[in-house]
Specification:
Chain lengths: 454, 454
């Protein structure tokens, strides 16, 4: 029998095992620039037992398996570079349990963050990780995603308390639990989080929840120079205001947004800040933020409390990535993702802007200034070899600048396909041990091959 | 040549390689009940190169090596159960770098938390993990320690950004870095944190720092019943007050303190709370806490802002463990360390009190109610086999109660010697993979043998 028939026999449902061209095509790429490759079959499991049946079959026959969630990966994690089986986990989208008094939820991997937050609202709770896209919790755990809220609430690894994982040979193991903390042996939960589908498939995820703050506002402040904006951000962080979000967008990025949306935002380095907490702490925090910004010569200061007005105020920030995309129809995007020590970020952004100018490129630069992570979004034509080469050069220079200043090649997108070389440059002496761990959990190398390691 | 001569040749300093009986004796035990065992030699390295020289020597000859910090372990981690070499790391106590603008410090493993905090004060920063004892940062990282502050700031694993580790064969590897977050490959940093000296010796630790809050207060509230105290704590957590500390002490424990210190604290279930942040948020938070406590029939409410008065108010909590110790001179202590899902803690504490009453024991019960972690401190005579058996029974029943309610056998003390059996019960299906990882990093099993695994 062929691969399709074998899998159909195991799943027993023609709707959930497919070789339909359109479906294969949909599973050939993520949201970024990497070369697409179709899987041979796509399976939509509904249970851990089905995932286990597929994996033990694939493991015996050395067939590659690639887990797939919402398809929003930016580093090619979900491209089955060696073909084989793609496991689409979106039908495993049950919220198994919400335990408001324990501040946790137990979810299947295909639950998306917006789906979870919708269900949490009535409990006055929310799940704080927001990478922008409506990704699945499974996918976010796989890449250790974070986003704008991480300065206050931490990254995915901080939220995941426990996992059910199906390993390459079909064995189902459990890590962590429902206790908020534990010192019981090696932290396998944290090891699986960020393993990008190379160690196993998550089938159950226990996540921490947060209380919805009493008050939230949004602040937008423009500065004469990038250095002053950055200095204001540093002052805010040091003052202990503990912002919910603090984002830096440079002048050229605002210009790109103005062109794209026909808006007239002041084309100046801009901080987008969110404060949340008790009403009085937000009020006091806002005053303090204003003072600190004025001290750095802020040229405009806007604040909104109403949720619609807040969303409007954040628009320029949210449109930045789309602006670049829209300005270059038909082109594909590369988003750099370096993270540097907090104090090094202003210089890193200035250096990056100089670099893309030098190469004559248009780029959006978006900075999570609270944790030193920033993105440079570059558009290019993958068929234009010369352009590809230049984009890769720029990317490599941005990464090496970050590494030479104590930073990392990826703050939140993961290694995937595109940063494998940089992983070696960053962690030369520990990569052999990462490979040893890979070998331990997946001796036949069937789990998402071609990712993380060269 | 013998072991001593070999090591002396490698270290070249008679002051730092010793077989002095008193020194060996000092390195034979931690602060808990486990049977002492002396090492054959104690070495005090000053550099990673010296640690590496000792380990590669020991690895070739299959000699056990046990790392040792402040000696405050509660689970026998530092007892060299198979003899061999103890590496006392307290001479590696340099604060290598404080980078206030990056909110991080780089320290050697022998730096203690008080030493670090002393140095940080002038920068308006502090290191938030406080396990009570003035432990070394290396030791705290080894056991993934936490303590009263973790409800607000997280545990050791959340603070450690990067490590320099000397592996069993003497190889020096680096993990993590100075970026606040990273998705670059498997999280080896988090794997080493909590590995209890079984995977390698930390020689450099990069830790996150926090700004000292503008205002801090201390609140002490008594309740008619344990259930009401627990319900008040739950309400406080859900109200989003975000306490810096929130501790629950039961009636019998306050009685023990009163006997020990000749104090007259109201013998009632008591919550000790600390709020910190901006002055206005502390003020508002205090009001809210008071309301929530009154709603649960609080019988007394005390609040202090001055640092001396705050310390005084916390005394009953701080003396609880000593009270038990003092009441039973010559006896040794066992401190349980289970952590249950937050909502399960009140019932777990009530159950534990019933249990120790049933066994006719005097015990202090101290709960980190914000994270579901509580300690039952039991005194016993290790020579009295009958008493040892009863204490072990009580401990086992407390652990199994926690495990059957989704909890963990250790919230912050680690597995060490005493909880190896419970690790298997808690993580039966993943312990084989923990062992695989141990094998990968330490194939000859020289690193702290007899700990974590049976």
């Amino acid at each position: 029998m062929g691969l399709y028939e074998d899998l159909l026999e195991r799943i027993g449902d023609r709707e959930r095992v497919t070789i339909n061209e359109t479906v294969l095509e949909q599973h050939s790429k993520g949201m970024a620039y990497h070369e697409p490759r179709k899987p041979d079959v796509v399976v939509f499991p509904r249970t851990a037992a089905e995932v286990s049946a597929v994996l033990s079959y694939a493991n015996e026959r050395r067939i590659p398996v690639t887990p797939f969630g919402a398809g929003t990966s930016l580093e090619g994690h979900i491209i089955p570079v060696q073909g084989g089986i793609t496991l689409n986990l979106t039908m495993m989208n049950n919220i198994i349990d919400i335990r408001p008094d324990d501040f946790l939820a137990i979810v299947e991997p295909g639950v998306t963050r917006m789906q979870l937050n919708q269900a949490l609202k009535k409990h006055g709770l929310f799940f704080p990780v927001d990478p922008g896209a409506d990704a699945t919790i499974g996918g976010m755990a796989s890449t250790n995603a974070s986003g704008t809220n991480s300065v206050k609430y931490g990254v995915m690894r901080d939220q995941v308390l426990g996992l059910e994982v199906v390993l390459a040979d079909g064995k189902i193991v459990h890590t962590g639990g429902m206790a908020v903390k534990s010192s019981a042996g090696y932290d396998l939960t944290g090891l699986f989080v960020g393993s990008e589908g190379t160690l196993g498939v998550f089938t159950k995820i226990i996540v921490r929840l947060q209380g919805i703050p009493e008050a939230t506002n949004a602040i937008k402040v423009s500065f004469p120079t990038l250095a002053e904006a950055a200095q204001a951000a540093a002052s805010i962080l040091k003052a202990g205001v503990s912002p919910g979000k603090i984002e830096l967008v440079d002048e050229q990025t605002i210009q790109a947004v103005n062109q794209y949306k026909q808006t007239d935002y002041p084309a100046a380095p801009t901080l987008f800040i969110e404060l949340s907490g008790s009403a009085s702490s937000v009020k006091d925090g806002t005053e303090l933020v204003k003072e600190l910004c004025v001290a750095e010569n802020a040229v405009s200061f806007e604040m909104e409390e109403d949720s619609v007005a807040r969303a409007k105020l954040w628009e320029a920030r949210h449109h930045a990535a789309f602006a670049i995309q829209a300005a270059y129809p038909g082109k594909v995007m590369l988003s750099t993702d370096v993270c540097v020590p907090i104090s090094k970020m202003p210089a890193a952004i200035a250096e990056t802007r100089k670099l893309v100018d030098e190469y004559g490129m248009t780029a959006a630069i978006l900075g999570h200034v609270g944790d030193g992570n920033y993105h440079t979004i570059l558009a290019f034509d993958p068929a234009d070899k010369e352009e590809v080469k230049r984009v890769e050069e720029v990317n490599a220079r941005i990464v090496r600048y970050a590494l030479s200043h104590g930073g990392t090649c990826t703050g939140e997108h993961g290694i995937g396909i595109g940063k494998r070389q940089f992983l070696y440059e960053e962690h030369r002496d520990s990569v052999p041990f990462m490979k040893g761990i890979k070998q331990l959990f997946d001796p036949n190398g069937i789990m998402n091959p071609g990712k993380i390691f060269l």
